[in-house]
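Record 2-dehydropantoate 2-reductase, 339 aa.
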Amino acid sequence: MKYAVLGSGAMGLRLGVLLQEAGFDVDFVDTWEKQVETIRSQRGVYVSRDGQHKRLVPVNVYYPEEYNGQADVLIVFTKQYMLADLLERCAHFFNDKQYALTCMNGMGHIEKLNQYFPSDRVIGGTAMIGTVLNQAGDVDFIGQKGAGSVNLANQTEQPDEMTHQIISDFKTAGLNPTLTDNFTGTLMAKVVFNSVVNTLCTMFKVRMGEFIQAPTTRALSVQLIDEAYDVCERAGIKLLTSRQEEWQQVVTVSQTGNPLHFPSMYQDLSNGRETEVDYINGYIYDLGKKYNYEASTHNFLRNLVHLTEFTDKFDVNGFINQVLEDDKASEQKAAAVSQ
Ligand SMILES: NC(=O)C1=CN([C@@H]2O[C@H](COP(=O)(O)OP(=O)(O)OC[C@H]3O[C@@H](n4cnc5c(N)ncnc54)[C@H](OP(=O)(O)O)[C@@H]3O)[C@@H](O)[C@H]2O)C=CC1
Ligand SMILES: CC(C)(CO)C(=O)C(=O)O
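=>
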C-alpha cells in the first residue's frame, strides 16, 4: 500500500516515518516552504526521541503543485485552520479510489474532507501521541518506541477490506491502532480530552506530567468533562467512555503516556501561531448552543486562550512608550491652553 502524508509537520512526520521504517512506501507533501527546503537540503528529516539519539531519516518531500504520486491512502495532518488551503492545493492529485485518513485534533475537518472524498473513503480518528517539531526539518517523537495509540473509525461506520489493510499496516508500524464503529463518538472523545489537557497546559505553560500533579487539576478537569458530556448527551453523541473513564484517561496519558509533552496547542502559542481552541473548546460551546445549553466554562476558557494569544504577542515596550507619549502630548496641550 502506498501512503502520502499531506501536512508533513510534527504528526505527519511521526506517522509517515514510522510507516516508512516499517517498510511501506511513503511520500510527504507540505506547503511550508522552510520545511520542504530544509528537508531537501539536509537530505532528510532529523528525528529524535524525547530529545535524544537524533538521527537523519531520508524522506521524499514535495510541494503540492509538484506532486503526482498516486497514493492509495492520504494521511492528512495539518492545523484545522490550514486544511482548506492545503486540500485546494492538493486537489489535482486526488483520484476516486483514494482514502483520506486523518487524526487531527478538534472538529471541522471532516466537512472539509468531504468536499473531495465521499464518506465511504474517509477514515477519521484520534492520536494519543505527542510530537514536537523543534524547527523545520527536525522532529522530536515524544515517548519510547511503541508509545501512544490511535483510534480509527470509518465515517460510514462500516469497515471494509481497505480499512483492515490500513489497520494491519498501522500495527506493523507500531502505531497501536484500534478500530471502532462509532465515528462521531471517537472524534468527540478526543475533543473532550484536548479541551482539558491542551487548553489548561497551554494557559499555564506546563508539560502534561506537571499539569497532572497539581492538586486542583482534578476539579478543573472534571468540571470541563462534565460540561462536555452534558453537551454530547444533548446532541445524541455516544462517547467511547464514561465521564469517570475520561478523567482516568487524562491521568494516565498525562502521567505515563506523555509526561514530557507540551500539547500541540502550547507549541502553536509559543511559535506565535493561532491555536485550534475554536475547534476544541469553542466547538463544544457552539454545539451546546444548538441544544440551548451553555457550556460556559468552555467558552470562558476559549476566550482566555484568545486573550493569551493576544497578550503573548503584545509589544509591552511599544505600549508603554505610546502611553507616555500620549501623556506628554496632553500635558503640552493643557499647558498651551492655560497660557
Ligand atoms: N503535535 C502533537 O503532539 C499532536 C498534534 N495533533 C494534531 O495534529 C494536527 C497537526 O498538528 P502538528 O503536526 O502538531 O502541527 P505541524 O507541526 O504540522 O504545524 C503546522 C504548521 O505550523 C507551522 N509551523 C510548525 N512548526 C513551526 C515552527 N517551529 N516554526 C514556525 N512555523 C511552524 C507550519 O506552517 P506555516 O509556516 O505555514 O504556519 C506547519 O506546517 C493538528 O490538528 C494537531 O492538533 C494530534 C495529536 C498530537
Ligand atoms: C499528545 C496529545 C494527546 C496531548 O494532549 C495531543 O493531542 C496534542 O498534543 O495535541
